[in-house]
Amino acid sequence: MVGGETLYELRCSLQLAETEREGGFSPHVSPYTAVTDLGNLLGQAGFNMLTVDIDDVQVHYPGIMEVMTDLQGMGESNCAWNRRSLLHRDTMLAAAAVYKEMYGNEDGSIPATFEILYMIGWKPHESQAKPARRGSATTSFGDLSKINQPSGAEKP
């Protein structure tokens, strides 16, 4: 799933432009889940030995309109019912300028960062194998160094 830092460039650009042009801002990108919240939810659901891995994927676009067109095509435009539904043209132009100035690449493209979260959790079940009793091992960790040696050969 996508994480809370997804599209931070777009969020910041829209917030700065809208605050400057309209005196306040409304979220125009859907909210995403924070990594800490995800770990807490998995823990509350009874999972333990939790692992949450993060990959940041950057996609480069010619401009802000292409980013927003792709987001709309993915169904990722903001679904909040209490947001402003209209984004004024001058605010969009200001956001495009802010985006290019703050995050633009030398080739004129702009990055859009997607934070991808991977979750793994373990939930015990009575059918799973139980760990062996402590001290019941038949091999010593000291013998591990002899694994790659031919049988009968002694280490000098």
From TrEMBL:
GO cellular component: mitochondrion
Stretches the record annotates as Disordered: 126-156
Bias kind Polar residues: ranges: 136-156
GO biological process: methylation; mitochondrial respiratory chain complex I assembly
GO molecular function: methyltransferase activity
Keyword Methyltransferase: yes
InterPro entries in the record: Malonyl-ACP_OMT (IPR050602)
Membrane-spanning segments: none
UniProt feature coiled coil, ranges: none
Key words of the record: Methyltransferase, Transferase
Similarity comment: Belongs to the methyltransferase superfamily.
Name this protein carries in UniProt: Arginine-hydroxylase NDUFAF5, mitochondrial isoform X2
Source organism of the structure: Parambassis ranga (Indian glassy fish)
